[in-house]
Specification:
Largest sheet: 7 strands, parallel
Structural class: alpha/beta
Distance between the termini: 54 Å
CATH architecture of the largest domain: 3-Layer(aba) Sandwich
Helix content: 40-55%
CATH class of the largest domain: Alpha Beta
CATH topology of the largest domain: Rossmann fold
Number of strands: 14
Number of helices: 18
């Protein structure tokens, strides 16, 4: 794998097909976009260019991901190493800067017609900025949602740079229109994450899950909790917040699978506390297993059978809405986001977290919700990417609401 520099790399020859560039910067984005990627790859009128960068290239977050992608029949056209590690705000900001620099070279070499940007992560904003300055048409997936951290600002900034918008719900569509986007290019397709969750039939076994991570063995045939708590980049006490969750989970004395936090600013202090807790002798960690990376189909299988998902992951808001999994959402990371009745919100307080988990387990599974689900989400996106008229010069579109 090598880093691509524009001064030493010739452009990829054109084939006459519409060239779609899909940068992938985390295993989560790759896993949740697999249906879309497969259909883009198979489409006779589309030439797909996959570019890898970000945490997906770091073994501790995405071990052997390149092999997984190649095994799926996809070609990786470019690999760009753009992560400055440190788990703090400076490292996060510098990674965004390096992402813009490296992917500008990659985009220049690939010369795509459309660049697909997913979600709200900080490196996606850098990708959108680079694409905009190269006069490339940008397609944004999951614009218009709200949340409780810098991610919301990033998401809306990408919306203002993007030309096509594939939103997950009607509330999000209205927000994108309120930002002055062209209604002809705003499509409510539903969530790719939820479409995938609806199709996964994989079963997870105890043997399989205990092959990942470290800690105590988990029997998935018995009740267990799944914990995913990522740092909130606009808060400065992530360590104290995860302390509250650790206390609550330890007091519940249940089997627990704890998924390692993502590499956003604040992950260092969370990871340090988790390591200390994991390595201390005695009862508190006796029923927990800590895992950094799970393939997406097995992750969905875990969501399906978990007694409760605890933390602040978007999976609790989206995938679990369809699966009916009880969720205790902690803190502000998903604040204001559209959610179904399976989600209970609590503050960073061990007592309240524990009480909420007990209530959710007593309730059990919820009825599936379709607030994020539309059948054929990936097909709808492919059809637009293949057939829509492309443009690069944006204009603010007034609506009756904005004029009023």
């Amino acid at each position: 794998m090598e880093t691509i520099f524009a001064s030493t790399t010739r452009r990829i020859p054109r084939t006459g097909k519409r060239r779609i560039c899909f940068p992938i910067t985390s295993r989560a984005y790759y896993g949740r976009s697999q249906l879309l990627i497969r259909k883009l790859h198979a489409h006779p009128e589309i030439e797909l260019e996959l570019m890898l960068g970000g945490s997906i290239l770091l073994d501790k977050y995405s071990r052997h991901i390149a092999d997984d992608i190649n095994a799926g029949g996809f070609n990786i056209s470019t690999t760009l190493f753009n992560v400055i590690e440190g788990g703090n705000h400076v490292a996060m900001a510098k990674t965004a800067c390096l992402t813009a620099l490296e992917f500008t070279n990659g985009f220049h070499a690939a010369d795509p017609d459309v660049i697909v940007i997913c979600g709200d992560r900080f490196e996606q904003l850098a990708l959108a900025m680079a694409a905009a300055y190269l006069n490339k048409t940008i397609a944004h997936i999951e614009g218009g949602d709200v949340s409780g951290s810098i991610d919301e600002s990033v998401r809306h900034a990408i919306t203002k740079l993007a030309h096509m918008h594939f939103v997950t719900n009607e509330h999000a569509r209205r927000r994108v229109l309120a930002m002055g986007e062209d209604p002809k290019y705003v499509f409510n397709t539903g969530s790719l994450d939820v479409e995938l969750a609806a199709q996964v039939t994989t079963s997870i076994t105890s043997e399989r899950i205990n092959g990942y991570g470290v800690g105590q063995a988990i029997d998935v045939a018995k009740p267990f909790l799944l914990v995913i708590q990522h740092p909130v980049t606009t808060e400065h006490d992530n360590r104290a917040h995860v302390e509250e969750t650790l206390r609550a989970i330890a007091d519940l004395d249940m089997q627990t699978i704890w998924i390692w936090p993502n590499p956003d600013a604040g992950t260092g202090e969370i990871a340090d506390r988790l390591r200390h807790f994991r390595e201390q002798a005695g009862r508190p960690a006796a029923r927990m297993r800590f895992i950094t990376d799970v393939p997406v189909d097995e992750f969905v299988a875990l969501l399906k059978i978990a007694s409760c998902l605890v933390g602040n992951s978007s999976a609790g808001i989206k995938e679990c809405s369809y699966l009916g999994t009880p969720v205790v959402n902690i803190g502000a990371r998903q604040q204001g986001r559209l959610h179904a009745g399976n989600v209970t919100h609590v503050e960073y307080d061990a007592g309240r977290i524990g009480a909420a988990v007990r209530r959710q387990m007593a309730h059990g599974p919820y009825a599936p919700s379709d607030i994020y689900y539309k059948p054929g989400a990936s097909d709808a996106i492919v059809n637009v990417l293949c057939g829509a008229e492309l443009y690069t010069q944006k204009r603010f579109h007034e609506t009756a609401e904005t004029i009023a």
